[in-house]
Amino acid sequence: MATPPSLRIDNLMAALDAAEIGQQPGEVHGALVGLICGGVEQSKKAWNSAFLELMNDGQPLPDALQQLIDELYQDTLTRLSDADFGFTPMLPEEEEPLAKRVEALSLWVQSFLTGIAMVQPKLNKASADVQEVIKDLAEIALVEFDVADDDESESAYMELMEFSKMAALLCYSEFGPEPSEQEASVIH
């Protein structure tokens, strides 16, 4: 599934800068994914108020940015529920320096954990697998940004990114809507 041009990382960064929101695109995406994977109610009012609480102290966003966030939410929800696993964290492209990508992954994971904790107060009662991945994600959030730009570090980054992706999908399968609920919300 191709990413819509409007949801490119540089477009989201420009919209965040224009609105003077001090967040990176990865943080915004991580928070949205955390909310969705935590089982936030799918109505716009529910997920958007939780999102605004995390990202902008509960204050509304400028219309252009809100429209982009709405589109990002729908795209992310579609990707998370896609049987072909079209979901990946929104992170800088591989042309960017490794240190920048590692920092972005750390911020994405931090925001994911904050988002999921906000809507899922029973994380300590989750399955053992989910509890373990949450613990592992907390370690990834603390990863060092000062990394060597070599094949070994690149490989380690790719493993952490893939783990983060699979951890989000595991959380979504545990806390997200039941498949029958999802199908009912899809317009045919």
TrEMBL record:
Gene3D superfamilies (alphabetical): YgfB uncharacterised protein family UPF0149, PF03695
UniProt superkingdom: Bacteria
Annotated Pfam families: UPF0149 (PF03695)
Cellular component annotations (GO), alphabetically ordered: cytosol
Family the UniProt entry places it in: Belongs to the UPF0149 family.
Protein's name according to its UniProt entry: YecA family protein
Organism the protein comes from: Shewanella atlantica
